[in-house]
Amino acid sequence: MYGKAFAPEYQGALRDMSVNTAYEDVLETARQREHGAAEAGNALELAQARLAVAEACRRLGRLDEADAAWRGSYRAARSAEDKGAMAWALWSGGTLARQRGQLNAAVRWLSLARDLAEQAGEVVAYGYSQAGIAETLRIRGDQEEARDLHEKLLAEARKRGECRHTVWALEGLAQLDRNSGDLDSAWRRFAEAAELAEGGGDERGLAWALRGMADVLSLRGEPDEALCLLSRGEQICRRMDLSSALAYNRKMRGNVLFRACWYGEAARTYREAWDMFRSINEPRGAALARLGLLKSLDKLGRPRADTERDLRELRDTLDSRELRHTRKMVEEAIDELADMAA
């Protein structure tokens, strides 16, 4: 039996905030609490408030503010000598690093968060950190290691009846299944994640699950149904101010349109996603949207030499040590064009 979703990153005086509170509202409330804690000289409350500020800013795409906030949270937690609060701050920093495409730093911060959480007996922070490591490994291309960790996390989440953790683990495994070509398994996992998220009131998890289901439907040749699911997910993202999730939703819409051979609309949609990712300084998403845009323009008759040049430039912007999976996708697109020209 699963309980309702909650947001453990909202702590202390902020504990009563809903997991579905819009992030502009979270930020306003957390800033007020931060000011009050600073005036009162309460280091632990200051760490908790700054953690919420960091997470709200990260979700809103204000990444420099998020970086300052998680570091401030860590300093306050260390001053309070609270290892649990220190772990949460490092978790936030690791999650931000992943969003910025700094995958090695993400693993480092999240591993430190996991170790501190274990020392403090902070079970939820430990699980969040492990989940963050698993997701980072998957994005980096370490598929088998990521699958093993996701499986362990899923078993633990099911045992404790934690809605959000179960949803996250299911979505991670579903993405791995999709990447390996097992669409039936991917669909089952995404669909279960969507059902659990909706039942548990986890709109964030639902938005990501809907995106995954749309991807599978598109790959099966059902673009209209896929676009309907993406529209539903987009409404959630806009209501909650989920800047990054909204950009990925838009990029997936481009994928669906491209696969349906609606190249003009796909190009416009990829360009929108590219602009959105660049505005929040998210290099992985920006690279994927740019890749989709270039492939769409090629289908629309753009000179092949121009597309090949831009793809090579895009490839060279991607660090092979961190965004190697994304770089591999660009290299595959370059090879495809070369094969077509041969």
Verbal overview:
The radius of gyration is 20 Å and the shape is globular. It is mainly alpha-helical and about 350 residues long. The mean pLDDT is about 90. It has helices spanning about 25-40, 45-60, 65-80, 85-100, 105-120, 125-140, 145-160, 165-180, 185-200, 205-220, 225-240, 245-260, 265-280, 285-300, 305-315, 325-340. Helices cover about 80% and strands about 0% of the residues. It has a domain at about 10-140: Serine Threonine Protein Phosphatase 5, Tetratricopeptide repeat, CATH 1.25.40.10. Belongs to the Rap family. This is Tetratricopeptide repeat protein. It holds the Pfam family TPR_12. Keywords: Cytoplasm, Repeat, TPR repeat.
Structural class: mainly alpha
Largest sheet, if any? none
Indicate the CATH class of the domain at 8-140. Answer: Mainly Alpha
What fold name stands as the CATH topology of the domain at 8-140?
Serine Threonine Protein Phosphatase 5, Tetratricopeptide repeat
Q: Uncertain segments of ≥5 residues (pLDDT<50)?
A: none
Mean pLDDT over the residues: 92
- The CATH homologous superfamily name of the domain at 8-140 equals Tetratricopeptide repeat domain
What's the multimeric state?
single chain
Helix content: over 70%
InterPro entries: Bac_ResReg_Asp_Phosphatase, TPR-like_helical_dom_sf
GO cellular component, one term: cytoplasm
Family: Belongs to the Rap family.
Protein name: Tetratricopeptide repeat protein
